[in-house]
Design brief:
The structure holds 2 protein chains of 2 kinds.
Chain A: H1 2-7, H2 24-62, E1 67-76, H3 79-82, H4 90-93, H5 98-116, H6 125-129, H7 136-146, E2 154-160, H8 163-169, H9 175-179, H10 186-197, E3 201-205, H11 208-211, H12 226-257, H13 262-274, H14 279-293, H15 301-326, H16 329-337, H17 342-370, H18 374-378, H19 403-411, H20 417-447
Antiparallel strand pairs in A: 1-2, 1-3
Chain B: H1 3-14, E1 19-30, E2 33-44, E3 48-52, H2 59-66, E4 76-84, E5 87-88, H3 96-102, E6 103-106, H4 117-127, H5 134-147, H6 151-154, H7 167-180, E7 185-189, H8 197-210, E8 215-219, H9 223-229, E9 232-237, E10 240-246, H10 247-252, H11 257-263
Parallel strand pairs in B: 3-8, 3-9, 6-7, 7-8
Antiparallel strand pairs in B: 1-2, 1-4, 4-5, 9-10
The chains are: A mainly alpha, B alpha/beta.
Chain lengths: 451, 268
Amino acid sequence: MTDMTADKPAASTGPARSLLKVGERTRKRNAAEKRFRMLGLAAVVFGIVALLGLMTSILSNGLSSFNQTYIALDVYLDPAKLDKNGNRAPEDLRKITTFTVQPLILSAMQTMLEERELAAEGVNAKQAAALISKEAPAELRRYVIANPDQIGETVSFDLLASGRIDGYFKGRVTMESAALDRNISPEQLMLADQLKQAGLLELRFNWAFFTAPDASDTRPEAAGLGVAILGSAYMMLIVLVLSLPIGVAASIYLEEFAPKNRWTDLIEVNIANLAAVPSIVFGILGLALFINFVGLPQSAPVVGALVLTLMTLPTIIIATRAALKAVPPSIRDAALGVGASKMQAIFHHVLPLAAPGILTGAIIGLAQALGETAPLLLIGMVAFVREYPGAPPEGFFDPASALPVQVYNWTQRGDPAFIERASGAIIVLLVFLLIMNAVAILLRRRFERRW
Amino acid sequence: MSEAATQDAVNASVEQPVIKMRGTGVNVFYGDKQALFDVDLDVRQHSVTALIGPSGCGKSTFLRCLNRMNDTIDICKVTGEITLDSENIYAPMIDVVELRARVGMVFQKPNPFPKSIYENIVYGPRIHGQVSTRAEMDEIVEKSLIKAGLFNEVKDRLQEPGTGLSGGQQQRLCIARAIAVSPEVILMDEPCSALDPIATAKVEELIDELRVNYTIVIVTHSMQQAARVSQRTAMFHLGKLIEEGPTDKMFTKPDHKLTQDYITGRFG
């Protein structure tokens, strides 16, 4: 009993060292921590500002390329000019040139201005017709060849306005700049304003930007990404088909089967190095190996895809090996313990668990490949290609362009309208990349399993 | 006369023990380091053999030699002879897959596949071609789960992931999975070390039941567990087999002082 009273705790007589008083060391440590946090925050803010700046610049320059100015025009398809023999024979029609069609547009423009009583001082018929793109005759020619029965009729067309007119309505061209411009005059712009008021000229969504092929320097309004998107799609398809199986097979072998010795160490180091090789070097390799030695055609998606496959492989191999390593060994043991062979253990249990990582790696590799420009320049994909590549598999060997190369190409052009096109192409490229990354995230979510 | 001696006499008179597995002069090397020295150990059929000893003494290594799980470690080398029904399992023409179908294993940490309970059990029999029809699979799932004492707890959720079960249930699922391939020997590497006492009791009970049909070798750190579930005990120390004998004799009057000290908790 006496023990118990002795054990009764006494109230503390007050702290020997108060927690309320902050020591010198603590103050210093807290200050350092605060400084570091601010630094980190500043870094993040800097990154976000840089990204916002980039996005604003691209979007403000490029969004306008998704709209395009069109002029509505009723063109009389004059049989006397288009079909002198009067037999509508396709072989004769194919001989129609854009020079034969041009006067039709000129007279159509003239008729329209007279009918609507539109005129601008100092603008003759020819100058008025110059509001319409140089691409228009080609479009008309294609239409006539495709619809010979329409010859002799008056047909309504929505023709592309010339790049300067398009630029005027997008704010790129002003009266002042037109006064100094050889290609356009302020009077022509005034006429364009009148056309707009009459409802004959309007800005519309530019589907052609996604479908049309590239166009020459003098007709930026007609330039589109059709060939580039198709070329990029072909390349991605081949890259995926080649690099995923090869990469996964190589990783499985290296990770699960290969003996750990000096040779596999060497291979491992070299794969890591390969991922760091400048992409232009791969371009030179592609040029020397696939074009000069193997003799594959230049500018062909198949060559681009082979080069990009070589570039993507290290990424996929590294990602796959990491994913395989991350599968807990207990799963392997479990499979081996019930008598699965090594291959069964890997294919039935390890690979499915590693799949999200592998797929993410593959998609990141593909996204990298999609944006790669330098090696494609060297294998000739920078060429001016207006013909769509054919259907696969023959189409893989046809000349094509690629999205990033198209961007590069357009930034080299003289006409300022191409700046808008290039930014527009960048937006398209970024949207594709975003979609791919979103797919990667979705796949990861879907396949991820806990154990 | 002591009880242990009586027990021995009874055992000897009832039946001649059958040696299911026998290790002779087993040496194991991890690279340059030798982990097992000249181990000779017999595993008797339809009995539980407990391997005890302090950490790093080689008992797990020996266990993993019995179904050649050590093969998965590149630097591991095994010499000597281990037989299963008098056939050397390290003979060159032996297929490890066949061996592991006959010598199953349950691991320290419950490691069900991240699949349904049903899939977990069916997997082994399916890859060995023991079942093919749906009815056969249903049957083997039910039979294995009943044997593992898990059927009543999970019969309504066979399609749910095996990883969703509690730790003890997961371990019994792993035992059910091992039983499903109808092995002759089941190796257990500290099967209860990650389980609470109640789950441990259930698994121990199960081990005792399984002894009737299977031969069991169990590595354990718990002396009580060894005493409760095993018929024979082998004591390892620093890679050497110190002594081996009937469990009750080992726990009452071991031949070696080392064993005595270890069992009574004086070291280890």
